Amino acid sequence: MKQKISTRKLAYLGLLTALVFASNYARIILPVSIGGTTAFTLANIVCALAGLILGPIGGLASGLGSALYDLTNPVYAAESWITFLTKGALGLVAGIAAAKLIKKDDSDSYKRSYAKYLISTVLGAITYYVLYFFKTFLISGLFAEEGASAALGFAAIAGKIPASIFNAVVAIAVAPPLAIALVKALKKSNLALEE
Question: For residue 175, which of 87, 94, 63, 88 has the smallest C-alpha distance?
């Protein structure tokens, strides 16, 4: 069955792509000697939010916005395509889970809606960090300069765990209530996405 993308959904896709791009600038780079650059960032909130609001197509907004940011920064530019896949997976998985859990005619209480958005965000974050740590392991360990080993890859992952936990917890704590508030406001103003 062929599915059409509405003009409103396309506009929200562009808006959320731009928000993901801009939110990547809200970061604090940490000096970590193993494994390249590690940062505290607020972009994961908006990546998850894109999936929660747009559904699976939110993965395109989270991946594209993050990859565009990478292209503006020489430190990340070479890995922009990997970022597109990993951050896109965060939004995609959160969007798929939200689309399955949240029904159009749900009249759930805030508590139940929050739980559904929370589960969706957790699944998206887990997917992202599994892919992110796998990429870190490959690039810092197995594909690094001659003589690198799996031990170096695991050391790089260990160096990224504190910032990754912080980023995941902030996204999981902030994205669900923000999504509920935005969806409620969009419905109230007759700007909700039609299914």
Answer: 94
Structure tokens at 170: 């902030």
d(CA 54, CA 46): 12
pLDDT tens across 149-164, in order?
A: 777 778 888 888 888 8
Kindly report the pTM of this predicted structure.
0.87
8 Å CB contact between 35 and 160:
yes
The helix/strand count (H/E) of the chain reads as 6, 2
**Residue whose structure tokens are 């890859």:** 153
pLDDT by residue (tens digit) across 129-151? Answer: 999 999 888 887 666 665 557 77
| β-bridge mates for residue 83, sequence order | none
For the stretch 7-44, what's the b/e string if a residue is b when 16 or more beta carbons lie within 10 angstroms of its beta carbon? eebeebbeebbebbbebbeebeeeeeebbbebbebbbb
HSE, CB side, 13 Å, CA atoms: give it for residue 159.
Answer: 20
Average pLDDT over residues 104-109: 56
Query: What are the start-end ranges of the E strands in 31-128?
Result: 38-41
